[in-house]
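This part of the workshop introduces the protein records we will be handling. A record pairs a protein's sequence with a compact description of its fold. As an example, a complete record with its sequence and its structure tokens follows.

_____
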Amino acid sequence: DGSLLLWANTPEGIEAFRSRDGLVFRHAAGRMPLGAHPTVVRLPSGRLRMYYSTPDALPYEPSRVRSAISRDGLTWFLEDGNRFPDAGFGVMEVVPLDDGTWRLYLNDRPFKGPSRIVSGRSTKGITFHPERGIRLPSPYADPAVARLASGRWLMVLSAIEHRQRLYLAGSADGLRWTIEDPPLLEDQSWSLFDPTL
């Protein structure tokens, strides 16, 4: 109907909000998955798939990437299984690739050492297998990724610092990224993190 849907974390879990003009959003009733950090993609069939992270109980139970399917973005049906075994800090992005496969970007959570941005690849968007190497090292986190009309990739991300700032990174292939300096956005009073594009 031309309206926009926004999915966001709230203290009660994932909630949906609808807007007719992109400026004013109001709560929209629906059935959401139990989790956090939703990222939604449109499938070739026209349906929507939401990837989200489950709550963790470290060190015994890490947060995992799960998924749900919807026709309208408001009523979601859970899909069995995990999409990725450890969601790290849960902030993730899933993007389609030219060959019909999918790539998942997320913060990992190594047993020792700081978090980094890593990726996984999936042929059907169901099971993501870790890709070799890291996309960006510590202290970078919270990837939001978009494909530009030129074919290049753009990422907005934060850095885990005393006061978090937002940065821009660019890539020709989605695997090797270059951070632009100085920061894209910073505030002397607040930390900025979990961006979206």
